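Hi all, a correction to my earlier message: I attached the wrong file for Ribosome-binding factor A. Here's the right sequence:
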Amino acid sequence: MPRDFSRTRRVADQIQRELAELIRDEIRDPRVGSVTVSEVRVTRDLGHAEIYVTGLGMDEATSRQMVDALNGAAGFLRRQLASRMRLRTVPAPRFHYDPVFDQGARLTRLIDDAVGDDNDQSTGD
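and the right structure:
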């Protein structure tokens, strides 16, 4: 039976915290604005980290450009992580666009529109 809080999960959580700080403080690329690191998945051998990010207030195309910029800075970010974390090898980061926040905002707009339509119909009777 696996433990509830495995080593890979602890490493992923620490990488998520450190990367959020590093991206905010160290990345100067104009394509990278306000970034939310929504999830980090680390392989069992700690060789790779799949990092899911969303740009706040960005459309999907701009967010994908941001992901390209972060993947370009992956080597720099890995070196910075190595200096902050006490691991023999730091997982190689690979950034991916995470559409979850955009989908949530879209659903919220749809719900608000539906509620507004219902209110308009009920007052129009």
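Sorry for the mix-up. Helices lie at 7-26, 60-72, 74-84, 100-123.
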